[in-house]
Amino acid sequence: MHHIILDSETDFDGWRTAARALVLNDVTPADVTWTVRGYGPDLSEASTAEAPIEPPQGTFNVPAKFVELAKTAILHRDAERFALLYRLLWRLRRDHDLLDLADDPEVAHIHAMAKAVHHEAQRMRTSIRFREIGREHKSHFVAWFEPQHHVVELAAPFFASRYADMPWSILTSDVCAHWDGHEVSITPGIGKAELPADNRLEEIWQRHYAAIFNPARLSPKKSRNLPEASTIKSTSESATPPEPAMMRRAAESLSTLREEAADCRACHLYEHATQTVFGEGPQSAQVMLVGEQPGDKEDLAGKPFVGPAGLMLDRALIEAGIDRNKVYVTNAVKHFKFVPRGKIRLHQKPNTPEIKACRQWYERELASIKPDLVVAMGATAAQCVFNKLTPINKNRGRLIDLDESVKALVTVHPSYLLRLPDEDAKAREYQRFVEDLKIAAELLRKRAQAAA
C-alpha cells in the first residue's frame, strides 16, 4: 500500500507528481491512499516508506482538459477528490475519450465538483464587502468570507485587478489573501473572532446597494445571509418607481462597469487583444443582444458588432422591426481570441474557462440594464446566458424564462450566416434569423400594450 501525503488541501503540483509516478509504476488506485499533511491519520515515516515509489520511467499523455478539470476539482472539499482524480487518470491512460462519457458516474461526479468550485468562486467575487480599517492615517480594507470550497487563491486575482489601487485583505478560516498594490500574498487562515471591528465602509455600501437593487429580482432564500439583507427587506417593502436621479445613478453604474472591464485580467485573452470591447446601448434598453466575442474590426474599434456580422445584424433587426439604437449589444467574452497568420488574425472560439471567467461582466450588465429580453446569438452566448451548454436548434424559436421578469431567446450568431457557402441556404437561414428576431419584436409590442 502506498500512502501519499500532500502538503496542503490544494496541492495540485504534489498530487500530479505523485500520480504520474504511481501510474508509471503500475500502482492501481486500490493500492493508494491520499491524505494531507496535518490531517487524517498520523502516518509514520516507516509506513509511508513501506512501498516506495520507484523513479518514473517513460511518459504518457492525457487530454489537456483533464489537467484543467483536475486543477479545479482539487479545490473542492470532498475528502475523496484525490483518489477520484487518480482513478480517472488511471482510466484515461487506457481510454482517452473517457471524459466525453457524460453518463459515466465518476466523470459526472468530477464535473459536478468542478462546477461547484466555479460557483463558489463566483459567489466570492459577488458577495465580498470590504470594510475600511484605519491604520495610523493609512487605510486598509478588510473582508471576511466563509468559503464552501478552497477558492480563495483562485478568486484573489480578480480582486487584485478590480481593487488594484487599494490595499486589502480577504480573511477566511482556510487561508487569507492580501494585496499590497503589487502582488497577492497568501497566509494561514484565522478565526472569525480575530476580525477587526471598525466598519466605516458599511454605511456607504448600504446606500449604494439601495440605489442599484431591483426588488423584482428579490429571492429571500438567497439574500437573507448577505450583509445588505436589511437593506433588501426595507427596499423591497417600500419599492416605488425609480426617480430620475436614481436612474442616473444606474447609468453611472453601467459606465463604471465599462471602466472596470477595461482593466479586466480574469483570463489570459487580454494579453494579445487590443482592448476590452464592452457592451453598448441605452441604459433603458428592453432587449439585450449577446454575441460570442469581438472580431478583428471590433477589437480595433472598441465597439461590438461593427464588422460584417454587425452589418448582417443591423439588416435583420430592421426587417424584424427592431431599432438597434434602442437595444443593448454585448458579447459573452469581451476580448478578441485569435491566432495570427501573417498579417491576418484568425478568430478562435472561446473555451469554457474563458466564458466562465468573463461571465461576471454579462451578469453585471444584466443587473444594471434590467432588460425584458435577452437574445443569445450562437452557442457561446447561449452557454453564457444559461451558464451551461445549450443546443441552439433544440431551444431556438421560443421564449425561455430566465427569472420572474426576464425572458431569453436563443438563435444563431449572424457570423454563421456569413459562413454558409450556398446562397440558397444562406437566404433560408437568414430568414429564420429574422423570424427569431420577430419573436423579440412581438414581445416588446405586447409589453408596450400592457404598459399603456
Notes on the structure:
The chain is of the alpha/beta class. The protein contains 17 helices and 14 strands. The chain has helices at 12-24, 45-48, 64-73, 81-92, 105-127, 152-162, 202-212, 220-223, 229-237, 244-261, 296-301, 308-320, 352-369, 379-386, 392-395, 414-419, 423-451; strands at residues 2-6, 32-36, 131-135, 138-144, 168-171, 175-179, 184-188, 287-291, 327-331, 338-341, 344-347, 373-377, 399-401, 407-411. The strands form 4 sheets. Strands 3-4-5-6-7 form a 5-stranded mixed β-sheet, with helices on one face. It has a 5-stranded mixed β-sheet with strand order 9-8-12-14-13, with helices on both faces. Strand 3 and strand 4 (138-144) form a beta hairpin. Helix 3 crosses helix 5 (105-127), helix 10 runs antiparallel to helix 13 (352-369) and helix 12 packs across helix 17. Mean pLDDT is 83; it is low at 42-51, 198-228 and 235-252.
Give the key terms.
single chain; alpha/beta; five-stranded mixed β-sheet; 15% strand
Fold topology:
Elements lengths: L1 E5 L5 H13 L7 E5 L8 H4 L15 H10 L7 H12 L12 H23 L3 E5 L2 E7 L7 H11 L5 E4 L3 E5 L4 E5 L13 H11 L7 H4 L5 H9 L6 H18 L25 E5 L4 H6 L6 H13 L6 E5 L6 E4 L2 E4 L4 H18 L3 E5 L1 H8 L5 H4 L3 E3 L5 E5 L2 H6 L3 H29 L1
Parallel strand pairs: 1-2, 4-5, 8-9, 8-12, 12-14
Antiparallel strand pairs: 3-4, 5-6, 6-7, 10-11, 13-14
Helix pairs in contact: 3-5, 5-6, 10-13, 12-17, 13-14
